[in-house]
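TICKET #2291
ISSUE: user wants both folds in one file
ATTACHMENT 1:
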Amino acid sequence: MDYKLILKDIKAGKFEKIYFLHGEEPYFIDLISNAVEANALQEHERDFNQSILYAQETDAIALLGEINAFPMMAERRLVILKEAQYFKDIEALEKYFEQPADTTIFVICYKHKTYDARKKSMKAAAKNGLVFKSDKVREYQLADWINAHVKSIGYEITSKASMLLTEFIGNDLSRIVNEIEKLTILVQKGTTINDVHIEENIGVSKDYNVFELTNAIQTRDTLKSFKIVRYFENNPKAADITVVISNLFRLFSNIMRIHFLPNKSREAVAQALGVHPFVAGELLNARTNFDPRKLASNIETLHEFDLKAKGVGNSSASQGELMREMIFKLLH
């Protein structure tokens, strides 16, 4: 079930007896759990009818006592088990899942990994409540997810700005949302967020970042590449060499795949690589700058410098020095 539909039901006062929230993406788990907490009880009902427990500080007996207790001067009770991935007795809850209390809303927040769907407890929870698997948003979907989120709160965002956020923060939805929330305090509603807003308020340079370096290399712009690397050398917090290597590896791997695709239309490339059509077009242009032999050599170079960055075969060179040498080899 889509998390938006779950949130819609919660806000409309339609609650499940059990919410078993599990998966690798904590953002959606928090979103649903917080929505239940905000809507299940009135403010005056919470003192006696709301229990928020942490898995490492409770056991099955104490938890069962909470979820089986009767509400006091209220229609229902709310019990939230946080950090449930550390709770060792989830299977001990199977009987409760089979016959959950009619007057309790029980929320299980099992983060950073999935719970085995074959377990009897999970099947019982799905039968008598709601099981939600919170998957990570894939990297190629992040820009679209950011666009949709920004639009949902009354703003627009340029493609470059969303790319900058993706490159700077990575696949961490909570951090992305937090940074966007900071911007909304400073930028008037209805504004289109651009790369200047990102640079001035989040601390990502619109001209000197991993995204721009990757773009300069794929167009074989040597001067721009070394300007950015020099900026990184003078501003070590701007980019880590392992992040640069990861992005360049993805770039060269995608270009190599394009060389051997039978259909090289932008739409076919976008589908094959799982990237946005705009990115597919950029990669198609980059294909003319790197033949398969050079791409294979570059991937070998990235592996070499990944080891050096981790101290293998390198005892004294700084990240900046390694980056300069690496970029030289990639472009020559």
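ATTACHMENT 2:
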Amino acid sequence: MNRVQVRKQKRKKKKGFIFLAFLLLIGAGVFYWFYQYNQGFTEATDSAVKDKEFELFEGEEPKFGEINVMLLGSDARKDEDGRSDTLMVANYNQKTEEVKLISIMRDTYVSIPGYGKQKMNAAYSYGGPELVRQTLKENFNLDVHYYAIVDFNGFPKIVDLIAPDGIEVDIPYTMQHGIGMTLNPGKQTLHGEQLLGYVRFRHDKMSDFGRVERQQEALSKLKDEAVGFHSLVNLPKLLGTADAYVNTNLDKKTILSIAKGILENKSGSLQTLRVPVNQSFVDRRVNVGEVLDIDYDKNIQAIDEFLNPQVDTAVDTTKNTDNQE
């Protein structure tokens, strides 16, 4: 065998080793993905929402590369309907990879199709996510394409996977009543269970307004944490845990597309809006209790400008909670 043939044979062996190493690497990656995903799923405890069945959700197909996902937070136990404790609409733009979040106040006085005037959070107990979708469309002209119902029992586990070192917040006063723990004033680094207590506390002078503000703050900081390397490594386990605690009609392909976009969009901040916006509501007592009686035109306009910004505005629609018309 001459030198040329020896060199060719060595090149073939080298290419063979590289190809084999590549296959082993791919195999190891697939094994890691499924192992971590299953670990996240099996470590979850029973969820009250995961296997719950609802009426057919009739959201339209997304248009113009924008996806609206209705996020419902539920604290109901198994075999209970319960009212939605939290209602948000997450808007994801597939082209810009921007994420926007609209929080709908639970006491907003709305027309629920088939049930008349009620608090917004009653729609879920009457007809599940489909009736919430119809209510959002009828009252705010807001189209929702998908839904995701999150069991609050899974929130701490998801938080600890996204932010293993915790989330820093500045607590203005002692938070204790109704959350099963005591959170002291000052800058604190909160982990899963503590952060859940922080975002659910509502017994302060701002009532539910403060809770919504804290929810938006926590999600914004979690979104920033999600772009870190540890989140990419933990992504399979995170998806497995979320799968155990989230009831959704989002398909896996769309979930992965959104997750990939959020992870890659490292510089993008989470934009938020609260509905009702400032100077668009009054407090009223009606037959269903204390409600926020809103100006629909102002809020529909605010939502449209938030999702489709055309002009700059100096009006802050989220921070001031004065109940002015």
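RESOLUTION: both attachments delivered.
EXTRA DETAIL ON ATTACHMENT 2: The domain at 66-307 is CATH 3.40.630.190 (Aminopeptidase).
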